Amino acid sequence: MSTVAKAIREGAFILTNFPFGPPDRPDQPGPLPHIAYCLGVRSIGRGSELILAYTSSGPWRPPGRTLPLGIIEFDRAAARALNQIPFHLDLRVLARVPPVAAWLPRLNTPGFGIIAWADAATRDRIAAEASRLAARRPEVIEVRGVRAPPRS
Amino acid sequence: MSDTANLGRTGITVRLDPETRDRVQRIAADEHRSIAGYVQMLIERDLRLRAEAERVIHVFTAPELEGKRPGALLREPGETDQRYAERAQTLRTLLGEH
I need a surface site. Which of A91, A133, B24, B32 has the fewest CB within 10 A? Predict the structure, then answer.
């Protein structure tokens, strides 16, 4: 695993060209740098892949509605701890990307584009929410996107 | 709609301002529906969209990774065996790698 991949780990909020999907091509880097959360890094072939979750500024919309499973809001205080404005994390929108500059626009700068690190409690909170999301009955999880080949 | 089809259904009353009611009536007529049928269709469509929003996990995969079999998850410093195993399994599930 490369040095870069080892530097980017679970808990990193990192600037990415997150693939947005329609109207943009979902299999191409997104048009604008966007902060994503790294859920983990896996080896793949001779390289590695980052598993990223989507973030968006502001609270979950529409306001007042119960948060769906997989959404975590970071209010003013929680966001400030990460030097950010309030935002929400959406664990239902994921991306698998290699650690290359096409997907990580600040990869070749000091810090690799990592803008903040989640502390242990926040990492555990996010991992627990991901676990709850994954624990739903398989028939109510419908993954859209290219799947990795089955494990041998 | 037959009486049989209505068995077990509950009626509701919806109050609309005249302008909205006129628009709804025109749209329903264009679609060869009754106003009640149109409102029922709207409700069912919204419920489907909500169900999909709750169910679907979108996974975007970089083309460079397609067809490659992922290996081990990088273990975090100090991560317990249990947390590591749960995290790895969670990610496999969310990515559709059952």
Answer: B32
